[in-house]
């Protein structure tokens, strides 16, 4: 009972709302960029409760470029989320590499 009472007062930091990024999973797992052998650039934006001050807004810009000769990919993504007075922005770069384990199986890592 004491353990539960202690966790009830902990402050939680809000993380990005990843459910908006279902069609672009690179922000969740950068190794996902290894599945496509073509370069891609995507932009995603979302606004909720339009017209109300402090309403949630989110934006993501993502680009990835395959390095086919080395079974790798590199890229970046920028995410911004605004909710009320909180404004959270992150910029991430990544390098993902695939290692062939068998003729059909690969291990991908970032």
Provide a concise account of the structure shown:
The chain has 110 residues and is mainly beta. 5% of the residues lie in helices and 45% in strands.
What are the SSEs and their pairings?
Layout: H1 2-7, E1 40-47, E2 57-67, E3 72-83, E4 86-100, E5 106-109
Antiparallel strand pairs: 1-2, 2-3, 3-4, 4-5
Q: What does this protein look like?
A:
- The structure is a single chain.
- This protein has 110 residues and is mainly beta.
- The protein has a single domain, classed as Pantoate--beta-alanine Ligase, Chain: A,domain 2 (2-Layer Sandwich), CATH 3.30.1300.
- Helix content is 5%, strand content 45%.
- The protein is built from 1 helix and 5 strands.
- The protein has one helix spanning 2-7, and strands at 40-47, 57-67, 72-83, 86-100, 106-109.
- Strands 1-2-3-4-5 form a 5-stranded antiparallel sheet, with no helix packed on it.
- The chain is elongated, with a radius of gyration of 18 Å.
- The model has no long low-confidence stretch (mean pLDDT 80).
Cα radius of gyration in angstroms: 18 Å
End-to-end separation: 40 Å
Q: Please tell me what the overall shape is.
A: elongated
Quickly count the domains. Answer: 1
Strand content: over 45%
- Helix/strand class: mainly beta
- State the helicity in percent bands: under 10%
Largest sheet: 5 strands, antiparallel
Assembly status = single chain
- The unreliable regions are none
CATH topology: Pantoate--beta-alanine Ligase, Chain: A,domain 2
Q: What's the overall average pLDDT, rounded?
A: 80
Which architecture does the CATH hierarchy give at level 2? 2-Layer Sandwich
Q: Count of helical segments?
A: 1
- Which CATH class applies here? Alpha Beta
Tally the beta strands. 5
Q: Encode the helix/strand succession as letters.
A: HEEEEE
Q: In which order are the strands of the major sheet placed?
A: 1-2-3-4-5
């Amino acid at each position: 009972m004491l353990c539960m009472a202690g966790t009830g007062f902990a402050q939680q930091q809000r993380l990005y709302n990843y459910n908006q990024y279902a069609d672009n999973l690179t922000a969740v797992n950068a190794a996902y960029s290894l599945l496509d052998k073509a370069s891609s650039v995507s932009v995603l934006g979302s606004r909720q409760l339009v017209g109300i001050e402090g309403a949630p807004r989110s934006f993501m810009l993502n680009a990835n470029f395959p390095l086919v000769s080395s079974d790798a990919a590199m890229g970046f993504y920028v995410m911004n989320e605004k909710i009320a007075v909180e404004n959270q922005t992150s910029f991430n770069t990544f390098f993902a590499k695939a290692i062939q384990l068998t003729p059909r199986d690969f291990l991908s890592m970032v």
